[in-house]
Write a structure and sequence with these properties.
Elements lengths: L9 E8 L3 E8 L9 E6 L14 H20 L6 E4 L1 H4 L4 H12 L8 H16 L6 E6 L4 E6 L6 E5 L3 H8 L7 H19 L10 E4 L2 H9 L9 E3 H13 L2 H4 L13 H15 L2 E4 L4 H11 L5 H7 L1
Parallel strand pairs: 1-4, 5-8, 8-10
Antiparallel strand pairs: 1-2, 2-3, 5-6, 6-7, 9-10
Helix pairs in contact: 1-3, 4-11, 5-10, 6-10, 8-10
Length: 320
């Protein structure tokens, strides 16, 4: 945990509740997401707490409540009381999402907030645009999450195109690659399905994609870049031919062995193959090269909230 020595002069704060953690990040005046005033993380494994009907279990709900309570208490100890409690797709898309929100609110007094998939895509674009600046020209932003994939494109400060697809690495693993060592047929069918969804989402934009610099804003893409040869200190990018060489190797390994590979974390090892196939499909459509941005949706949300610092809480949260 990174913390302030005294009460934080916060301009924006987000508690980001995802599949694997609830992460508190506090942004200070004149600062950036690269240098937060305060961070705190509570581990979660909500990917293990979805039942056969897509409902978050009681144990999972209790874990979320505990993580929210810890995160908000940490913020309060440092004088930060205005925190955006963001629940990502693992909760938003659960069959009992409304019950989860109600239970967490009853236990903690905090009502989790959802962003639509489209809004998450727009915020990922904001993050990438702020990172690369106006001189980067048109950007196409790809964000592969656990439940969904976000796509956003534009040439200005805000995205002109934004889509969210239910093609996340966790979802595709659960629905289409349930075996530890899927067959070649399973992989071929997943690839065809993902390509069809992506082509449909881009629609008339496909012929224009060559005009855009393609940016990856997600842990899935960062980990695949490490796996396929990128290392700290070198240009951060992922290339299609490098990734394609790894897909057959990932398919042959059980999750426990995938976790031994460079860049593949233990908690995401089971969904690494599906994530790689989704990334490959995206790259086949968008030109074969993705540069990796360290900022993503949460950072876009922090920057947007900071832009509206000084306005009433309800107005700032609506801007998000």
């Amino acid at each position: 945990m990174r913390k302030c020595d005294e009460a934080c002069a916060a301009t924006a704060a987000v508690l980001d509740v995802g599949s694997f953690s609830a992460r508190l990040v506090v942004h200070g005046a004149g600062g950036s997401p690269l240098e937060p005033l305060l961070t705190h993380q509570t581990r979660l494994r909500l990917d293990r707490e979805l039942d056969g009907k897509g409902r978050l279990t009681t144990r999972g709900i209790d874990a979320v409540s505990a993580a929210v309570e810890i995160g908000m208490a940490t913020a309060a100890r440092h004088g930060v009381t205005d925190v955006f409690p963001l629940a990502t797709s693992c909760i938003r898309d659960a069959a009992n999402a409304a019950d989860v929100v109600a239970s967490v609110a009853e236990a903690t007094g905090v009502k989790l907030r959802f962003l639509s998939g489209r809004r998450e895509a727009e915020l990922a674009y904001v993050a990438a645009r702020r990172w690369y600046g106006a001189s980067a020209g048109p950007l196409l932003v790809l964000d592969i999450g656990g439940g969904t994939v976000e796509l956003a494109a534009g040439s200005g400060g805000q995205a002109g195109f934004a889509r969210s697809l239910r093609l996340g690495a966790r979802s595709m693993t659960r629905d289409r690659l349930p075996a530890e060592r899927p067959s070649g047929k399973d992989i071929k069918e997943l690839r065809a399905y993902v390509l069809g969804e992506i082509d449909g989402a881009f629609g008339d934009l496909v012929p224009k994609l060559a005009e855009y610099q393609v940016v990856g804003c997600s842990k899935v893409l960062r980990q695949l870049a490490r796996l396929a040869g990128d290392r700290p200190g070198k240009a951060r990018e992922l290339r299609l031919d490098d990734l394609q060489a790894w897909i057959p190797r990932l398919a042959k390994l059980p999750p426990s062995r995938r976790a031994e590979l460079p860049g593949i974390s233990r908690v995401r090892a089971h969904q690494a193959l599906a994530g790689a196939i989704v990334a490959e499909s995206l790259m086949r459509v968008t030109g074969g090269r993705v540069v990796i941005c360290p900022w993503s949706t949460r950072d876009g949300l922090l920057l947007t909230l900071a832009d509206h610092a000084g306005t009433p809480r309800a107005q700032r949260f609506r801007a998000a």
